[in-house]
Amino acid sequence: MLKNWIGHLLEGWDASRTIRLILGGLLTIGGILYNESILIVLGVWLLLQSILNISCCGVGGCSVSGGQKPIYKDMVKPYKPKK
Q1: Structure confidence by residue, pLDDT tens digits, 36-59
Q2: CA–CA dist 4, 7 (Å, integer)
């Protein structure tokens, strides 16, 4: 079970997740070196986001829904000027 969970965390890394990991690590190290607690908190927050693959809104909080019908699709008609 643990191997499956770790495998799930390590798959699907994209650019934004990698950037969050690197930036979180740098902020955490910088916060420890300069004794700045706000940098440590921000760095740990970014590290957790990257490791758990969540955003500020939560898992899938900022995603768009593809299965719903557009609200105004039938009501809005394209403008065609008369010649």
Answers
A1: 999 999 999 999 988 888 877 655
A2: 5
